[in-house]
Amino acid sequence: MQIIKGKNYEDISQKAAQFILKRIHENNRLTLGLATGGTPRRTYEYLIKDYENNHTSYQTVSSFNLDEYIGLAPSDPNSYHYYMYKQLFSKIDIPKDQIFLPNGLATDLANECLSYERKIKEYGGIDLQLLGIGENGHIGFNEPGTPFNQRTHVVSLTESTIEANARFFDSIDEVPRKAITVGIATILKSKEILLLVTGKSKQAALKRLIESNEVSEDFPASALRKHENVTIIADEEALSKLE
Ligand code: F6R
Questions:
Q1: Lateral strand order in the sheet of 128-131
Q2: Minimum CA distance residue for ligand 1 atom 11
Q3: Fewer beta carbons within 10 angstroms: which end of the chain, N or C?
Q4: Which of the seven top EC classes does this enzyme belong to (predicted)?
């Protein structure tokens, strides 16, 4: 795992955007894997800034998001569809038919998971997967205990993730209890992985990921040790508990 140190959130966001843009310039048919949550917001703002100033085109780029809540329509401001269009897609020139997120309203969820996997394959797999990390080490919505060999599947969110995500909702009761997520096996199939980590709340997870040798389903992010092309961009605060 390669580690790139940034000063603060602003700095890691700028570095992450530069990293992604470099890959787009190297391969304009890039298939991106994208994440939501607080961490990548500023990175997306930098991508938009670049689009406005340098006109990097996304016409031939495709993108697959990691996850979506079950039961939320794309028009729901808390859905990940809504987040992605608001934070990024509506502000760059990526064609709508090259944007994919799991459908949280699918009536046949098992089939939705299978067809999402098929779609990723059809696009030649993910070239660059952007990830955040949960305080409990989750990646995507793969909570501790998720088998590493799972592909896209339905998950029940843990209490700690529900609590962490409640900040985006009016009340904790509104946080959906289930989601569709790409699996750890899907994430590990990506050709390259970029993990972004910021702030105090992620110190323990980052320390465990970098300093221990464990590869254990109790700590989902440890699966990343099995991948040979992972870059972590983390800020000083997140890294400050490392030996
Ligand atoms: C988001 C996702 C999650 C987040 C993680 C960190 O699509 O899959 O794994 O990356 O929960 O969230 P933030 O960035 O809000 O701390």
A1: 2-6, 230-235, 192-197, 128-131, 31-34, 62-65, 99-100
A2: 134
A3: C
A4: hydrolase
Gap between the Cα atoms of 50 and 58, Å rounded: 12
Considering the candidates 68, 117, 127, 143, report the single residue annotated as catalytic: 143
Rounded to an integer, what distance in angstroms lies between the CA atom of residue 16 and that of residue 9?
10
Question: Would you say how long the chain is, in residues?
Answer: 243
Q: Is the CB–ligand 1 distance for residue 66 below 6 Å?
A: yes
Residue 29 CA, ligand 1 centroid: distance in Å: 26
Q: 77 is written with which tokens?
A: 């401001």
CATH number assigned to the domain with residue range 2-239, chosen from the 4 options 3.40.50.300, 3.40.50.1360, 1.20.1250.20, 3.40.605.10:
3.40.50.1360
Q: Give the residue, 160 or 15, on which the prediction is more confident.
A: 15
Please report the pLDDT score of residue 198 as a whole number.
Answer: 98
| ipTM of this complex prediction, to 2 decimal places | 0.99
Identify the band that residue 161 occupies on the pLDDT scale cut at 50, 70 and 90. confident
Q: Residue 163's CB: how many other CB atoms inside 10 A?
A: 13
